[in-house]
Amino acid sequence: MNEIRTRFAPSPTGYLHVGGLRTALYNFLFARKNNGKFILRIEDTDRSRYVEGAVENLIQTLKWCDLFYDEGPDVDGPYGPYIQSQRLEIYREHVEKLVQKGYAYYCFCSPERLAALREEQLKLKVPQIKYDKHCLKLSPQEVQKKLESGEKYVIRLNIPENQTVKFYDIIRGEIEFDTNFIDDQVLLKSDGYPTYHLANVVDDHLMKITHVIRGEEWLSSTPKHILLYEYFGWEKPQFAHLPLLLNPDRSKLSKRQGDVAVEEYRAKGYLKEALINFVALLGWNAGDDREFYYLNELIEKFSLEGVNKSGAVFDLNKLLWLNGEHIRKKSVEDLLSLLKDEIKKSKYASQNFSDEYLKLVISAMQERIDFVHEIITKSYYFFERPISYEEKAIQKNWKQETPEHLNLLVDALEKLDNPSKEDYEKALNSVAEKLQISKGKIIHPLRLALSGTSAGPGIFDLLYTLGKEESIIRIKNAIQNITYKEPKTS
Ligand code: GLU
User: If exposure means fewest CB atoms within 10 Å of the residue's CB, which of 63, 286, 341, 440 is most exposed?
Assistant: First the structure.
């Protein structure tokens, strides 16, 4: 059997849409699973949509997601160039062959004529607005004369009437289109650039693509592509059209209802592992209800048979949950480098925290966060001393006798030498015993003194992470700065 070759063929728009990421991912997974090749091809033939830097951004985003391709603009390969705007000659040569065979024709109609034609058809309520093949009636001599006199033209596909175009879609099964509903598609535009349809088919053939895996929105283009393959006399690839992505209200996923750019999710602190995991599940499952996957497991499990036809709902809560899950499964070492990146972006950028200290902070917080940056925002007290103390917690937990209790605890802590978590626990227990009070009476105000808040990691994790010296300073500061409030009597 031939080697399996898939491609991701984005038009660079300036950002990578999550739907595009899913298309890229499924192409990648299918190729990797089958020991095939995954190709990146840039479809940039619509010059009116050109965006500076878009290709570089796209490449960078794919690589950030670990979706490495075997052939593409910056890695090259045997069938390059992989950027369509660098292949214009190839498309022209091919479209001319179609013209010679009568499968395509020159059209010189002015935009005014086309607009009038459209108006008329709209008025007549025709079932399908189409070009009327006016220029197909021109004789070869007339065409030649117009070309020589420099008249503007496009080249159109000559769609036959009253035929059925059939093809098999791996996800949707047999599909049929009536050619009477297909317009004579422009293949070559008046600026000399090919349209998507021509360039896409020519390149898929020349790049030996075996499986075209793309979004459902391209399904209606496929009959045109099928005809092109037939007219060129080429073997067709297999097709698989992926389900639409939907908002929770089942409308088409749109920018208006939230972020659609992968770059946005990245900027918000989502892990690439979580995004890939999430996007993989938008329309695919392995036949069970498993939801947590790493990329290498997806490669192993993926199949096009596991892709559904019906629209896939983009559920942000699930992405959030997966982000937390992936964080919890990460090693402290991995989280350390991510945390350092976050610190660089924060107001603590100029401070020096040792790796050893940051690892303790991570261990204390790993179970309690959904984003790495929450280590800083939720537990800022690991990066600076408390700047204030939660009012409610003072009311509730700071009693008149609290300073005396905490002073005793300080005495006990001072006696400890390089304490472990258990040593802290023993010290606190013995103070509580001596005072004949419950541990809670010490733990709650102690937490407030150490962190300024009433929530956070376990108290002994907190003590251990901050260390003896720092903990003692914070307790003393709190004793000085917190004033006891008489309980409100009604
Ligand atoms: N350039 C098209 C896009 O932007 C590619 C569609 C296809 O894969 O054929 O998605």
Answer: 440
Q: Is the CB of 194 under 6 A from ligand 1?
A: no
pLDDT of residue 202: 98
Q: Which atom of ligand 1 is nearest to the CA of 23?
A: 8
Q: Read off the amino acid at residue 43.
A: E
Token pair 């949950």: residue: 321
Point out which residues pair with 169 in neighbouring strands.
Answer: 173, 239
Note the pLDDT of residue 258: 67
User: Is the CB of residue 10 below 6 angstroms from any atom belonging to ligand 1?
Assistant: yes
Identify whether the C-beta of residue 460 lies closer than 8 Å to the C-beta of residue 425.
Answer: yes
| 252 tagged catalytic | no
Rounded-to-integer distance, Cα 343 and Cα 287, Å? 41
DSSP states along 137-161: GS-HHHHHHHHHTT---EEEE-PPS
Q: What distances in angstroms separate CA 207 from CA 7, 78, 168, one per listed residue? A: 9, 8, 21
Active-site residue, from 123, 125, 137, 255: 255
Ligand 1 and 200: CB distance under 6 A: yes
Q: How many other CB atoms are found less than 10 A from the CB of residue 289? A: 6
Both structure tokens of 325: 């899950």
From the CA atom positions of the chain, what is the Rg in Å?
A: 33
In the block, which residue shows the tokens 């559904």?
308
Closest residue CA from atom 3 of ligand 1: 10
Q: Ligand 1 pocket, 44 CB below 6 A? A: no
> Which residues, in sequence order, are CB contacts of 272 under 8 Å at separation 6+?
64, 65, 66, 266
Contact 188, 202 (CB under 8 A): no
Question: Tell me, what's the pLDDT at 489?
Answer: 64
Cis check: omega of the bond before 81, within 30 degrees of 0: yes
Task: List % helix, strand, coil for the chain (3-state, nearest 5).
Answer: 50, 10, 40
Q: Is 418 left (phi over 0), alpha (psi -120 to 50) or beta?
A: left
Residues of the chain below pLDDT 50: none
User: Contact at 8 Å (CB) between 155 and 104?
Assistant: yes
The answer to whether 482 and 448 are in contact (CB under 8 A) is yes
By three-state DSSP, how is residue 285 classified? coil
Assess whether the C-beta atom of 11 lies below 6 angstroms from ligand 1. yes
Q: Three-class SS of residue 160?
A: coil
Minimal-distance CA residue to ligand 1 atom 10 = 10
Name the residue with the closest Cα to ligand 1, atom 2: 10
